[in-house]
């Protein structure tokens, strides 16, 4: 276990699988107590059990951010566990590639409710704790905020991830004088359960084209693993990153370099 403060708590939304769980586990390995928030009971229970093996406290709250009252429930869960939040990782999100002509108002609202509202209102609600700990917020955006892919209609997803990128910059500017740092991470393609589920919905031809695109587009020669993102999140929360705020950092194997 790496050296961290004994009463250091990290909150990770969407933290029960994929990138979110990898981030939570990296913080647990680094000595932080962790609160993960996810919507599926079995994943919550499994995440808490796995995280507790690292010797720190682990709390899992089952909350669906698409439902009314979710923000309040999340805040209550956090404050029931601790009064000291050092890092908030706003990772929860949904991804779906619906053509502009086919998107409905209900789908638009769902994207906003899951991809934007939790990041904004959890940061707002937990600001007293973050100020007290001189903590930091890490928001998860995406390369889709600025780079599109052929055959992947992403208006809704790109809109919300672009909003998170702008939100992070504005939050950093506003909260810096209050001692709170804010940064965003923009992952490239990461091998995760969410990605696999979306790919399975695509026609076989589209899947083959995407695989070929990935082979040609990543200079480093592979797509990412959740741990690649987790390592950056842990660094951004550390004392070594004390002068980094307002940044959106790509962790994408060079995808957006050219």
TrEMBL record:
It comes from the Bacteria. It holds the Pfam family adh_short_C2. One of its GO terms (molecular function) is oxidoreductase activity. Keywords: Oxidoreductase. The keyword S-adenosyl-L-methionine does not apply. InterPro entries: NAD(P)-bd_dom_sf, SDR_fam. The keyword Repeat does not apply. PANTHER family: OXIDOREDUCTASE, SHORT-CHAIN DEHYDROGENASE/REDUCTASE FAMILY (AFU_ORTHOLOGUE AFUA_5G02870), SHORT-CHAIN DEHYDROGENASE_REDUCTASE FAMILY PROTEIN. Belongs to the short-chain dehydrogenases/reductases (SDR) family. This is NAD(P)-dependent dehydrogenase (Short-subunit alcohol dehydrogenase family).
């Amino acid at each position: 276990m790496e050296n961290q403060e004994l009463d250091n708590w990290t909150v990770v939304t969407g933290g029960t699988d994929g990138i979110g769980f990898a981030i939570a586990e990296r913080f647990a390995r680094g000595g932080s107590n962790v609160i993960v928030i996810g919507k599926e009971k079995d994943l919550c229970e499994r995440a808490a059990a796995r995280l507790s093996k690292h010797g720190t406290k682990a709390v899992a709250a089952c909350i669906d951010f698409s439902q009314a009252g979710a923000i309040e429930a999340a805040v209550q869960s956090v404050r029931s566990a601790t009064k000291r939040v050092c890092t908030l990782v706003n990772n929860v999100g949904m991804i779906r590639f619906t053509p502009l002509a086919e998107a409905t108002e209900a789908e638009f609202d769902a994207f906003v409710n899951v991809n934007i509202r939790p990041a904004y209102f959890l940061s707002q609600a937990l600001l007293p704790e973050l100020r007290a700990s001189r903590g930091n917020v890490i928001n998860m955006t995406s390369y889709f905020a600025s780079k599109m892919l052929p055959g992947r209609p992403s208006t809704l997803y790109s809109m919300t991830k672009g909003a998170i990128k702008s939100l992070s910059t504005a939050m950093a500017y506003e909260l810096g004088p209050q001692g709170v740092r804010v940064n965003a991470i923009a992952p490239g393609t990461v091998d995760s359960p969410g990605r696999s589920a979306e790919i399975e919905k695509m026609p076989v031809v589209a899947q083959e084209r995407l695989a070929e695109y990935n082979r040609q587009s990543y200079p480093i020669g592979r797509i990412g693993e959740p741990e690649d993102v987790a390592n950056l999140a842990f660094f951004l929360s550390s004392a070594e990153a004390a002068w980094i705020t307002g940044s959106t950092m790509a962790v994408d194997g060079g995808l957006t370099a050219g």
